[in-house]
Amino acid sequence: MNQLEDSHKGMRENIISTATEVFSRYGFKKTSMEDIARALRMGKSSIYYYFKGKEEIFQAVVDREADLLRVKVKEILDSAQPVTEKLRTYVKMRMDLIKQLSNYMEILKNDDLMNLELTEKFRKKYDDEEITIVRQILEEGTNKGELKVKDLNLSALAIVTAMKGLEIPLVSSTMGVESLNMVIDDMLDILFFGIVKR
Amino acid sequence: MNQLEDSHKGMRENIISTATEVFSRYGFKKTSMEDIARALRMGKSSIYYYFKGKEEIFQAVVDREADLLRVKVKEILDSAQPVTEKLRTYVKMRMDLIKQLSNYMEILKNDDLMNLELTEKFRKKYDDEEITIVRQILEEGTNKGELKVKDLNLSALAIVTAMKGLEIPLVSSTMGVESLNMVIDDMLDILFFGIVKR
DNA sequence: ATTCGACCAAAAATCTAAAACGTTCCAAAA
DNA sequence: TTTTGGAACGTTTTAGATTTTTGGTCGAAT
Questions:
Q1: Considering the domain boundaries, does residue B145 fall inside one?
Q2: Are B159 and A190 inside 8 Å of each other by CB?
Q3: Which of A74, A85, A97, A140 to pair with B113, CA 20 to 30 A apart?
Q4: Is any atom of nucleic acid chain D found less than 7 Å from the CB of residue A42?
Q5: Residue pLDDT, tens place only, B14-70
Q6: Interchain pair B197, A159: CB under 8 A
Q7: A147 near B196, Cβ under 8 Å?
Q8: Domain limits at A137?
């Protein structure tokens, strides 16, 4: 029974891997179950033995990407860097991911707005998580005496919000990678030291 | 000839006023030239005597709103407040405007994405202007010794970018006005004083 | 100088039949 | 029992042909 369960999970992984490739090629909507089935060399109805439907597959794909991200985030959080560097590393990594995802989901290229809904749906799931991560960093910095933050929750929200502003030129590819990095660095300098003279 | 020019300009103003009402009611795409003409009680072809076309009317409408805004901005800039307060006032005013405009253009309610393109098109026109305004404030603060900014241009860009992050929950009305104001205040505190202890 | 009805090409809305789609069912294979 | 795929179902999407609406032009009338 263990073997059976394992092969079941193995097949799920197999499907997720293949689906990831197909989704990243055609986007969510343009990918049909037949596309996935063909790539797997199975009948499409077989997929329904392992997944409830198309959205569940996509959810699984996104979840796996998120898991990979969580590992990286944990590495950063557990590292011995000063918190300012942790934050810097985290922000840059996050921006790389967003850029990747925006290509991946083809938010812009696709005509339909279903994608916007879907994007929002999945984003909401990770919004709170992101605020938590930033707050954790801020908390650590406060405890170590490196930072001085008035309200942890609000500050984390403010930082995440500011990062979202950076997404806009990134996703619409108005901004090159070089100038984006400059803006990030400047934003973080302001974030760390403020602009008021004292 | 002066009279004629005046009446010409007067009629243009008349059209702009009426068009503003109709546009704010139906949005850009859903209002037809006939709608505007009917509201003006004219034949629609008469409008073309004063304006080149629909987009020019809309442009004029937006420009007039922008002019009203510029007056307010000038008041703030010329006031005797400390620059930190100027910035605070400016940011809050800007957010009010965005909220107004997002209702006005009905970015969300409308199904089509033409509106997104159009919004972007008009936004680009004022993006540089906004960065200039913020940079002006930063410059004044630096000259008066109130602020200490490394790179004026980059910092202005960073601040404007962060403000755009705030637009997202504002436009999609995910965030109430109260909590928005808290986030703004917190963002500005961070902006002014940073989060690094010293 | 100003207004407007008639007109045009292009775009948008409307309709319909066929194709494609996600999903279910079931019998057969493993 | 687990796994598979062919057939079938109801729904959504698509394509094409048709009609309506729209933004814009023109020339005549005032």
A1: yes
A2: yes
A3: A97
A4: yes
A5: 999 999 999 888 888 889 999 999 999 999 999 999 999 999 999 999 899 889 989
A6: no
A7: yes
A8: 79-193
